[in-house]
């Protein structure tokens, strides 16, 4: 069976599915190929952002404390219902368009313009003028003795469907590691995080990292740094994690172990050589600033191209490619300014731009406004919702008064950071932001006070 198509999208990620819809609505014939019926809509809605944040929310509002598997199971059921509804909606948003063919199967290149799809017993080949690779990333599993996903050893996907562990060891203190540590501790698990780095959250200023670690500590999470895992054993009763720290070999027993050591771009099985598509040294698909690969007409979007691994970056990748194909060709990844991020520990840490350490190491003339949330009088919202912990810090250019960066750790910070990022993009000064009218009671109004007090 053969088809002539304008655009083939491999993988149903955020960027690919959005571009597929845009191209179809602009009158192009589009085929989108997804390997698994459980993954229509991609990582974010099925196994990533949305399901984990639903669980985090339910963990946070859990009445009482202690170990409560029944409550966890109920939260998992609610999460599954939410993901199933979003998956169905995502599928029909494209399947319902006349000019889109949706195919469930595994795609690989035959040549730069020809794709083979293996769908069960069936094999089909499609030709297209343009091809989009949007295959995402999967958990990186280190080549260590006994470390493979199965039984009591989990990645972020399998742990979300395992019984609530009494004791959880998390290997890796990055995004997944800290979010899962916070979440499982709020569900009542005893959590120990092992990270081989010199300190946890090493990209963040020490005062900010200390606040996040304090919040983890409040729910009993123990973070052990300089800890390098050597091997993991398991039997019917427990897992045993062996690690080296300060020259000593130590071991911890756990009901479950989470491997959270980063995510690797999915390129295996795509037969990229057949299309002359090159990889970077770290195994991502090599792209230039308009996301073209080394094969003409082939683009790579999202986690697979080695950019920052966030859903909204994949979405913006789609804008860059849509502009290249349908628009003026002016957009590129180089024009992104002030891309924020949030780590959904409780309360969340939201960041944008430079940290104080980064600004100082660049020799910039800066002024710093920093205040702990309990000391901010004009910010009743965290007290209203019962969690007055946190810290707010702004890094501001001493001459121009423009905002260079911010770290917000408090309830609602995942929302407030988007306002700060917009202010940075528009060159709004800290004085203008300080004197803005904000609703009350909100978390945003803290900016009236924090930006009025430069401490150093
Ligand atoms: C636990 C967790 C929590 C996260 N939380 C957040 C968060 O809060 N905020 C945030 O912004 N980001 C978060 N992320 C990251 C975010 O999920 C990813 O950056 C984003 O989903 C990447 O999207 P993508 O467009 O690259 O592709 P994906 O959404 O990963 O989609 C790729 C698709 O391609 C399919 N595929 C792969 N190979 C083939 C093939 N050969 N043929 C056909 N189909 C194929 C896969 O099955 C998959 O469905 C989280 C990630 C994880 C794991
Ligand atoms: N809220 C969000 O936006 C969100 C949430 C989850 C995931 N994500 C995305 O998914 C990506 C993957 O997350 P992740 O947490 O798996 O990776 P990560 O890169 O954020 O963190 C990996 C951590 O593991 C540590 N490490 C690496 N090798 C080690 C070893 N052998 N022993 C001990 N520690 C080791 C690193 O020092 C690092 O702290 C993130 O980079 C992020 O882009 C985003």
From TrEMBL:
InterPro entries from the UniProt entry: FAD/NAD-bd_sf (IPR036188), FAD/NAD-binding_dom (IPR023753), FAD/NAD-linked_Rdtase_dimer_sf (IPR016156), Pyr_nuc-diS_OxRdtase (IPR001100), Pyr_nucl-diS_OxRdtase_dimer (IPR004099), Pyr_OxRdtase_I_AS (IPR012999)
Pyridine nucleotide-disulphide oxidoreductase dimerisation domain mapped to chain residues: 339-449
Pfam families, alphabetized: Pyr_redox_2 (PF07992), Pyr_redox_dim (PF02852)
Residue ranges constituting the FAD/NAD(P)-binding domain according to the UniProt record: 6-314
Keyword field: Disulfide bond, FAD, Flavoprotein, NADP, Oxidoreductase, Pyruvate, Redox-active center
Cofactor needs: FAD
Taxonomic superkingdom: Bacteria
PANTHER family according to UniProt: MERCURIC REDUCTASE, PYRIDINE NUCLEOTIDE-DISULFIDE OXIDOREDUCTASE RCLA-RELATED
Family under the similarity heading: Belongs to the class-I pyridine nucleotide-disulfide oxidoreductase family.
Name this protein carries in UniProt: Pyruvate/2-oxoglutarate dehydrogenase complex dihydrolipoamide dehydrogenase (E3) component
Native organism: Paeniglutamicibacter sulfureus
Upper classification of the organism: Bacteria, Bacillati, Actinomycetota, Actinomycetes, Micrococcales
């Amino acid at each position: 069976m053969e088809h002539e198509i304008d655009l083939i999208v491999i993988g149903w990620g955020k960027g690919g599915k959005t571009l597929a819809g845009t191209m179809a609505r602009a009158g192009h014939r589009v085929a989108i190929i997804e390997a698994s019926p459980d993954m229509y809509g991609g990582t974010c809605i099925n196994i990533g952002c949305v399901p984990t944040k639903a669980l985090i929310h339910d963990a946070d509002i859990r009445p009482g404390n202690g170990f409560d598997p029944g409550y966890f199971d109920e939260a998992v059921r609610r999460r599954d219902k939410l993901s199933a509804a979003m998956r169905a909606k995502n599928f029909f948003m494209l399947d319902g368009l006349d000019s889109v063919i949706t195919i469930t199967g595994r795609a690989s290149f035959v040549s730069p313009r020809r794709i083979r799809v293996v769908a069960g017993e069936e094999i089909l080949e499609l030709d297209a003028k343009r091809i989009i690779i949007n295959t995402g990333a999967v958990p990186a599993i280190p080549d260590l003795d006994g470390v493979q996903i199965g039984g009591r050893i989990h990645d972020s996907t399998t742990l979300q469907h395992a019984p609530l562990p009494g004791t959880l060891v998390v290997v890796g203190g990055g995004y997944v590691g800290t979010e899962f540590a916070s979440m499982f501790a709020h569900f009542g698990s005893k959590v120990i995080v092992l990270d081989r780095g010199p300190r946890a959250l090493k990209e963040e200023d020490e005062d900010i990292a200390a606040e996040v670690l304090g919040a983890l500590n409040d729910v009993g999470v123990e973070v052990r740094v300089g800890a390098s895992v050597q091997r993991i054993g398991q039997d019917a009763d427990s897992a045993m994690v062996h690690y080296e720290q300060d020259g000593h070999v130590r071991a911890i027993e756990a009901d479950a172990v989470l491997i959270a050591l980063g995510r690797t771009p999915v390129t295996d099985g795509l037969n990229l050589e057949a299309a002359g598509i090159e990889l970077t040294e770290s195994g991502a698909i090599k792209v230039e600033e308009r996301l073209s690969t080394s094969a003409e007409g082939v683009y790579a979007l999202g986690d697979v191209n080695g950019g920052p691994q966030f859903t909204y970056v994949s979405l913006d990748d789609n804008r860059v490619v849509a502009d290249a194909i349908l628009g003026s060709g002016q957009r590129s990844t180089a024009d992104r300014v002030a891309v924020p991020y949030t780590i959904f520990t409780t309360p969340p840490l939201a960041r944008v731009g430079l940290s104080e350490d980064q600004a100082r190491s660049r020799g910039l003339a800066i002024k710093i406004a920093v205040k702990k949330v309990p000391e901010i009088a004009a910010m009743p919202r965290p007290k209203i919702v019962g969690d007055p912990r946190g810290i707010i810090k702004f890094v501001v250019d001493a001459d121009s008064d423009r905002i260079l960066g911010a770290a917000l750790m408090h309830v609602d910070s995942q929302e407030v950071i988007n306002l700060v990022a917009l202010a940075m993009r528009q060159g709004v000064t800290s004085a203008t932001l300080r004197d803005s009218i904000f609703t009350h009671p909100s978390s945003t109004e803290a900016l009236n006070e924090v930006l009025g007090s430069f401490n150093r």
